[in-house]
Amino acid sequence: MKKLRIKDIADGLKISKTAVSFILNGKAEEKRISEELVERVEKYIQEVGYRPSPIARGLRTGKSNIIGLMVESISDPFFATIARLIENEAYKEGYRIIYCSTDNDTEKTKELINVLKDRNVDGYIISPPPGVEKEVNELIKAGMPVVMFDRYLPKVKTDYVVIDNEPSAENATKYLIRQGYSNIGMITFSSSLTQMKGRLKGYKNALKEEGLKPYVLEIDFTPEEKVMVQTIREFLVANPKLDAVLFGAIQAGSCGLKAMTQMKLKVPEDLAVISFDDHDIFELFATPVTAIAQPIEKIAHKVIGLLLDRLDAEGGAAEPREVVLKTKMKIRGSSVVKNSKKYLESK
Amino acid sequence: MKKLRIKDIADGLKISKTAVSFILNGKAEEKRISEELVERVEKYIQEVGYRPSPIARGLRTGKSNIIGLMVESISDPFFATIARLIENEAYKEGYRIIYCSTDNDTEKTKELINVLKDRNVDGYIISPPPGVEKEVNELIKAGMPVVMFDRYLPKVKTDYVVIDNEPSAENATKYLIRQGYSNIGMITFSSSLTQMKGRLKGYKNALKEEGLKPYVLEIDFTPEEKVMVQTIREFLVANPKLDAVLFGAIQAGSCGLKAMTQMKLKVPEDLAVISFDDHDIFELFATPVTAIAQPIEKIAHKVIGLLLDRLDAEGGAAEPREVVLKTKMKIRGSSVVKNSKKYLESK
DNA sequence: CTGAAAGCGCTAACAC
DNA sequence: GTGTTAGCGCTTTCAG
C-alpha cells in the first residue's frame, strides 16, 4: 500500500485533479461543482484513506497549519500545562503545535524563531526572553500573528496575556502585614522580564505604604538547584530579623523551603511564607503553603483564542489586545496570624 | 529583505545552482568541488543569511529532520522532563522534535501517527498506549526507526528503554517487610501496560515469598483527581488492617497522600508509604516520602541515542535492542522501621 | 565544475 | 465542470 497522491484520486474517479483539489479545499461551491460529485469524492477519499501531503501543500501555499510555541522550558510544570491545554484547543481547529524551549536565552530564541520561520509556521505563541524585540517585530511586520504570555516585551505591539502581577504581590504583602508580620523579605529571580518586575514592584508598594523596610534577594536562575538553595540560606542567615518571605516564583519557593528545612527553620513560626504559583501538592507539605495561583486554564484558553482569532482574521492587523487576568491567593497554613493561638499551639 | 533561494546564491556568486546544492549537502568532495569555492560559498551564505527551505527539501527527499515524540501527556512532569532532555540532544544533531500527547487513547494515537507520517517525520519515540501494535508494526515495516520507552508493546519488535519494574517493586515490598510491616497494600492504575503489570507482579512476588496476603487496588486514571482520591479513601476504609502501601505511580501516590491527609492518617505511624517515581519536593512533605526514582536523564539519553543510532545506520534493520535500567530507592521517613524508636518518639 | 532538466505533491490561474 | 500548465524550492542525474 503505497502513498496516494491527488492524481490517484482523480484517476480512480475518472475526474480531474483540479476538481479534487477544489473539493479538498472547500471551494466546491465557489467553483460550481455539483454536490453529487463532492459526495462521491469525499466518500472515495474516505474509502481509500487518502490524506493530502501537508508538505507539498505547504511548499505551494506557504501555510503549514502549524503553530510555534516557545516557552522557557517545556519541563516547567506551568509551561507544560499551558502547552498541553493549547495543544488540545489548537488540535480541534486543525492546527498542530511545535514546541521549543528557549532556556530564556536570547540567542537560542533568535535561532529558534528562524527554525520556525523556515518551517513556515502560521503563528507564534511566545513567552519571550529579553532582547528579542527586533526579531519579534520583524515577524509582526511580515504579517505573522504573534501572541505573548506570562511576560511581554513592552516595545513590541502585539497581543499578550499576563496576570496582574503587581496587585497580586501587593495584596499578598499587605496580607502578611495584616497577619502581623513586619520584616517581610522577597526572594525572586533577577530578571528584567515584566512579570518579575511587576511582582517586585507590588511588594515594594505595599511596604512603602506601611513604612516598612524591604529585604530583597534577587537570585540568578540556574538549573543547579543547590546553588540557589545555598544563596537563599546565606540571605536568611544575613537577615535574621525576617519574619516572613514572599517568593516570586515557584522555583524560588521550592528552593527557599528546602533552605529553610535544612536550617531547621519552622514555617510559619520562624518564617511565614507565601509563594507565587500554586501546585496541588503544596497541600501535602509539612505546613501547607499559601500560594498565588495563576488561572492556568484561562491563560491557555485566552492565548490560543487570540491567536486563532488572528489566524482567521487573515488580513487586517487588528489593534494589539492586552489581556490581564486575575490571580487567586490560596490561603494555607504558612501565613497564619503571627503569634496566633494556632501558631502558639503548634510549638 | 525577501526570502532567499538557492538560485539567488548561485546568481550572486555567478556559479551554478548545482554546485551550491552539492556544497550545502556536504557532497563537495565527492563531486570534486574545489575547497576554494566551498569556502567562498559558505562565506557568502553566512553573509546574506541564506537558509535552505526544509519544506522544499522535505518534499524532494522525503526526509524532514523531525522526530515525532508521543507521550501520554506532555504536562506530566516525568514526560515533560524526558521531552526536554531529548529535545536538547536531538537539537545538537540537527533534529527538531514534534511532541504530542496521546492521553493513552488508542484511537487518538493512531490518528497522531498518521499526522506524523504525513509530516514525514524521520523517526518515532513512543510511549505507547495499548492497541496500537498494528500501526507501529507498519511503521517499522516501512523502515521507520521507532523507539519505545516507559512501557513497550510485547508484540512489537523494536528498541525500547524501560526500568526494571518488577525487581524494583519486589525490592520495595521486601524492604517494607523487613521494616516490620506485614499488611502491605498496593495502589496502582489498572492498566495492561507492561510497566504497571511489572510493578504489580514484583509486589506479589515479594508477598508470596513471605506468605503474606496481597491487598490490591487498581484505579482507573482520570483527570478528575477527586474521584481517584475518593476511591483510595474507600479502599483504605475497607482495609483497616493495612499498615503499609506501595503506590504504583506518582499520581497514585499523590492522590493517596491526599486521601490519607483527609482521613487524618499519619505517615508512617498509621500507614507506611513507598511510591514509584520521585520528585524532589517529596523531601518537603510532612513526612518525606520514600520513592523509587527512575533514572530520568539516563532514560532520555538512551532513548535518543538508540534513535539517532538507527537514523545514522540508514539501511540495516538491526536487531531490536531492549534496554532495562535500574531504579534507585530513595529511603525517607515514610517507611521507617515499624514501632521503631524514631516512630515512637514522633508520637 | 556547469547547465539543463525532471520531479517531489499540491494549488490555482487560464482557456475551454 | 475539465484539462493543462506553471511553479513553490530543492535534489540529483546526465551530458558536457
UniProtKB/TrEMBL annotation, chains A, B:
Pfam families: LacI, Peripla_BP_3. SMART domains: HTH_LACI. PROSITE patterns: HTH_LACI_2. The keyword DNA repair does not apply. One of its GO terms (molecular function) is transcription cis-regulatory region binding. It comes from the Bacteria. The keyword Transcription regulation applies. Gene3D superfamilies: 3.40.50.2300, lambda repressor-like DNA-binding domains. Residues 4-61 form the HTH lacI-type domain. Keywords: DNA-binding, Transcription, Transcription regulation. PANTHER family: HTH-TYPE TRANSCRIPTIONAL REGULATOR GALS, LACI-RELATED TRANSCRIPTIONAL REPRESSOR. This is LacI family transcriptional regulator. It comes from Chitinophaga silvisoli.
